[in-house]
Automatic annotation (TrEMBL), chains A, B, C, D, E:
Protein's recorded name: fructose-bisphosphate aldolase
Entry keywords, A to Z: Lyase, Schiff base
Lyase as UniProt keyword: yes
Organism whose genome encodes this protein: Berryella wangjianweii
Active site positions: 178 (proton donor), 209 (schiff-base intermediate with dihydroxyacetone-p)
Broad enzyme group: lyase
Family: Belongs to the DeoC/FbaB aldolase family. FbaB subfamily.
Amino acid sequence: MPVITRDQVRVPLDVAPDRREVYVDNYLKATRNSGRLMLFACDQKFEHLNADFHGEGIDPADNDPEHLFRIARQGTCGVLAGQRGLIAQYAADYPELNYLVKMNSKTNLVSTKQEDPFSALLSDLESVLILRDNGVNVVGLGYTIYLGSEYESTMLADAGQLIAQAHAEGLIVVLWIYPRGKAVANEKDPDLIAGAAGAALCLGADFVKVNPPKPAAGTSAEALAVASEAAGRCGLVCAGGSTVDAPTFLSQLHEQIHVGGACGNATGRNIHQRSLDEAVRLTKAISAITLDDASVEDALAVFEGSKEYERQA
Amino acid sequence: MPVITRDQVRVPLDVAPDRREVYVDNYLKATRNSGRLMLFACDQKFEHLNADFHGEGIDPADNDPEHLFRIARQGTCGVLAGQRGLIAQYAADYPELNYLVKMNSKTNLVSTKQEDPFSALLSDLESVLILRDNGVNVVGLGYTIYLGSEYESTMLADAGQLIAQAHAEGLIVVLWIYPRGKAVANEKDPDLIAGAAGAALCLGADFVKVNPPKPAAGTSAEALAVASEAAGRCGLVCAGGSTVDAPTFLSQLHEQIHVGGACGNATGRNIHQRSLDEAVRLTKAISAITLDDASVEDALAVFEGSKEYERQA
Amino acid sequence: MPVITRDQVRVPLDVAPDRREVYVDNYLKATRNSGRLMLFACDQKFEHLNADFHGEGIDPADNDPEHLFRIARQGTCGVLAGQRGLIAQYAADYPELNYLVKMNSKTNLVSTKQEDPFSALLSDLESVLILRDNGVNVVGLGYTIYLGSEYESTMLADAGQLIAQAHAEGLIVVLWIYPRGKAVANEKDPDLIAGAAGAALCLGADFVKVNPPKPAAGTSAEALAVASEAAGRCGLVCAGGSTVDAPTFLSQLHEQIHVGGACGNATGRNIHQRSLDEAVRLTKAISAITLDDASVEDALAVFEGSKEYERQA
Amino acid sequence: MPVITRDQVRVPLDVAPDRREVYVDNYLKATRNSGRLMLFACDQKFEHLNADFHGEGIDPADNDPEHLFRIARQGTCGVLAGQRGLIAQYAADYPELNYLVKMNSKTNLVSTKQEDPFSALLSDLESVLILRDNGVNVVGLGYTIYLGSEYESTMLADAGQLIAQAHAEGLIVVLWIYPRGKAVANEKDPDLIAGAAGAALCLGADFVKVNPPKPAAGTSAEALAVASEAAGRCGLVCAGGSTVDAPTFLSQLHEQIHVGGACGNATGRNIHQRSLDEAVRLTKAISAITLDDASVEDALAVFEGSKEYERQA
Amino acid sequence: MPVITRDQVRVPLDVAPDRREVYVDNYLKATRNSGRLMLFACDQKFEHLNADFHGEGIDPADNDPEHLFRIARQGTCGVLAGQRGLIAQYAADYPELNYLVKMNSKTNLVSTKQEDPFSALLSDLESVLILRDNGVNVVGLGYTIYLGSEYESTMLADAGQLIAQAHAEGLIVVLWIYPRGKAVANEKDPDLIAGAAGAALCLGADFVKVNPPKPAAGTSAEALAVASEAAGRCGLVCAGGSTVDAPTFLSQLHEQIHVGGACGNATGRNIHQRSLDEAVRLTKAISAITLDDASVEDALAVFEGSKEYERQA
């Protein structure tokens, strides 16, 4: 059971002196004392509208937004990531969860072909701090940047300022960085993914979520290792992508961490499109790998219910 | 007579601690202690210019803006929704009404074909709070989002921030969400309407007003049920649309609530284009269904004047 | 001599409680205790550049900007409307005049064909209040909206916020609303003019200046009556337009008020393009009709100098 | 030796009451107690990049920016106009000069053909006041407006607000107004120049710098007289334009003042492209005409060194 | 060993009076008491994404961002220039270094052909001052302007304001100015480079980094001398450009300083693409020339390890 101690947490120097302990608390909560992040991505309720939550191949339970909170409660994860409003409406009944407030969002209606992507801040930091003042476990913020978009500069400016403000308050920040727009020929190009990871570091993020690279030669995990190193002190986590079968999903995750140097995972659809019971077991299997260095086989046993898992630290 | 009690009101966690009771008061006032919203939409005085208020098939009384206030006084509704300026000019003479300030508006002059729609904030929240300080019963705010417009991001940002600020002050918020713009092929697509409802939840709204979906198969009310569930803790209400005969209108409303899971209604033209007497009776018939679970037959009797109706709670 | 008393002035509820008496003072000053507005429009010094002030058919005196102030001093009007800077440079020598500060302006160089019209705020309200603090009789503000322009949303937002701020300070607000832009086929369409009048009310304006409608059937004044009613508690005044002979001008004004329900007039070129003496007599003739319900004949006698006129209240 | 006294200075009513004496001081300093402005324009160091300061026909001394300050020290002028940064770097060594801070600037790289001109504020007023607090003789501000540009509205808004703020602090303001852009067929059209002068007055400027008009009939100075009158209480000064021989230059200046009603001059290249000695003599010749009503012959004698000149007041 | 004393530092007059000593400290630290700047440019981690840090011809060590800090610690330089976030994540372990925070950045994904370049501020100054409060040696700020871009005005406005604010806090400012965009035919045109240098002065910068000019006749260093003079009291430094062999690089640098009048250098790729040991030796060779007026031969000996170098002052 890998455990990091308070003094192993590196506190960036833009954290205000009187918020250093708050930052350490938040970092340890978000990583469940492991230094690795298991992020349950619920922000696509907005980003993908209802297509990810209702229809063919999706468990009917997923149409009710409370499904997300039930999974998080019964399963194991580091943070539930969602928009401020979603959290505000449910957190009173789920006070024990750690929340990461996704600060910007866009729908998928306007295609990249019509217009380069831009995702606007849905509120300022002050509006998030009210949640914290009201007892919500807000441990950090999330923000999406479409690198290479013609609106890149606005998103970089928003993200840079947000990170500075969040750190000043002792919150951690996760950047979602996706190269996208007319200028981007290949969104999964390994050099581009590594560049995105480095950009996240330069902006001061604590974690960066990227898509798995697709190299011309070698495995995705090998290419990911370059990006993880380029990210330096910013932990890199991979997006889960569309729903695949559990063995494939867990094997990929294991490779991303142990070959690719990833510092965790960020998973949404793969979890919430399942029934409550199955989804809960998947969060435990994922956490077994991410937080406790379980093998793929052990994690699969957790998913199949033949093995118990509970994060102890 | 369905009545909800103070402790049944779910207060979102972005309401400032010292404004929780204010929020509960406003929620109960707006819903007349029913948990359902009967919204009298008067904002089209601006949005549709004078076409909805004067001309063929419209009672001459409707050209005088005071007609709206007279209907609300003599009839039964939860809130009168209108722009800040309209309310400021008449509320001194109609102090007993509940007002919902429609914060943004646009005219219908520039067509979607010419330019994707955008509706700008007409004032900040502070300017609304002055009304409240002056004794106006401002219980909440309204804001329109054209989802899928190329200006979606600005409206999402404005709405997200507005909801945070309004909740901090104990006001409720109703979002009008209409998918519209070059990117939107079918504005009444059921998946899109459900997505819009979910987006309203993620932004933290208390109620969302959508157009009734037009499904390829099944009834509109059945499709609406999916959207209502996707909206989670955000109550969904349907727009009334253009003027139809009262029996049709009341039947649709009954189905929206009892099949579609709607939490109320938002009606404008169907009410105010009639003479004062007829309009007053229609608000009572609508309220009988919305607030008191009346049958369509009983509601029609109220509209025809053969049955009395007064909300008691 | 029509006179309204202090308690007949309806104070909008966005006027701050401690500024109610200031608002009443300003309303009575601007309307010379009549409830009707005689607005001397001097803002075209900026809007039309020098074309309205120098050249063929214009009295040479009009090239000197002080001509405007001399007319206002010797003649009779409710307010002199002009840009903040113009007033700042002359008001020390004309302290007895009532001023309405025109807050936004554009030149006529960029045609509507080249670009839809937009008129930007030339200063904030604070900069106007300094004038008041320095003893200038600033009774209100003016703002122009080009309804239907692609920049409509910015002007609506500016106007809405400005009205809220001005009322909070006890100032009255006059909106100039002109439908204009690629989306507007007929700027004088009666429905459109009536819609503009209603929009001004929704924004909370005290007066709205519109162009006289040109109906397909009936007189302009008859069409104006619909707009006046649609404006509700927002007083409607008509723009004077280009210079015509005095009898025609005074007849039109009389009809606008007594048939069209107008609450006054807004006149510029018709006045200042004349010699000082003639201009002074015209302001008195206009005021005789607007403020004192004079007949056209009596007003013409005032213009021709055969009858004395002085507003007593 | 024309001298105006303190009580002859008209203080605009947007000057804060406790800054009236500061304004009078600044006005008298800038005009050297003459009421006329001799402005040494050094802002083209930025606007024209190095083309005006180095190359064929330009004295080599002009490539060193300190040349500008040396001329101002040894010569005679009212104000040295330059960007905030330039002044900040040299003023410690030239504390006796009067400075006018040019608040906005653009380079000449993007042509009007490519894009209509816009010139952005390089800092806010607060940053200028620090200079004053540090002992720099900042007597006023300058701002350029390209009237008729598609970006006109932003420049009008910036200028209007800047003038209000500057006056509130007791600073004078000089506007440079050049009609330019796709909408402007003839930048030197006399009506347009007169309109620009009137616009400067409406914005509240103390002085306006325009290009000399080119009338179809009559002299430029005669056409200028119309503009000077249209500017009212805003003093009009003419731009010097490209370098011409001294007799031509001084004759034109004399006519601009005595026929055209100009209130001074604004000269750059004609001065600084010469050697230090020659440039110094030219500032004295210009000042002899502008400040002391010298004849062209006397001014030429000053330029040629055969006559002494020193402003006494 | 060239040394300047405290009283030889010219403090611009926009430095707040109580920050003059801070400015002197920062100036002396950044220039290692030499008056010349040896800037180690690490900002391309963001600007060029990972292409400058990984791949063919680049030492593998360069993929780890900490490589940059290791070089700076073991080598000799005036400041390490990098984005705020990068510095925040590493400075706790490298407290002895002087940092220059690069305030704006863009990626290289959107080409100039697709869109004229714009680089947005990644945070405000306050967020940088937190670093200083936390003990980081922030001696100054950097900002990039693409002169001639259609977005030039926004960058000029940001830079102008930033310089004013930074000076008020006692920080020095380095501008990177690159003429670029559709309007710029030849980015290395000597007149343009000289103009850029003069623009930096007018904005108030302490140093300006430009690309070496490519004159039609004469050497680059001779052309640079014109630019250095045009920059006046703003020290000019040259960008290092892409990696070349050390003798060529050091010869060019020597010429830039001793012929071209440069005040230092700004070097990135030439240093960090090498192994730690080689990179360290190169920083010392560069510093020997820049800070201690070493000959090319001596500097080469330092690079080759046959000669010791340590800046003493």
